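User: Is it possible to get a 3D structure for a protein together with its bound compound? The compound here is zinc ion. I've pasted both below.
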Amino acid sequence: MFNIIKVKTTSKVEAKDITDEVLKAVRGKDGRILNVYTPHTTCGLVINEDADPNVMRDIIEGLERLAPRNHPYRHMEGNSDAHIKSTLTGCSLMIPFSEGKPMLGQWQGIFLMEFDGPRERKVFLTLIQ
Ligand code: ZN
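Assistant: Yes, that's possible. Here is the predicted structure of the complex:
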């Protein structure tokens, strides 16, 4: 199974919870591993806590400390911090899949991490047998 979901982000930087969209797209499908992939260079994908929104706020602030937006980077487009944060978070996730759903932990959610929005992002879902 292969599917593309489109994710609209609304801010320069945000953690967009896409768990429900992913669950809906793969519900009842067959496979052992779900690959979630985004073909962009200034956003990322992470799995982390979706219960307390302050966790994602702290992660965004932590990434900002690692790659501050106003550092004098070389890349002339002016969004090097977003490229660095995208590299740190990664563009792909592999999740064990069973009984028609990804085996996420009780507190886990899937987030598209926007670092240079707002934009429309694509997320590819591939179920591997
Ligand atoms: Zn750039």
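Residues 2-128 form a domain with the Jelly Rolls fold (CATH 2.60.120.460). Helices lie at 19-26, 53-66, 80-89.
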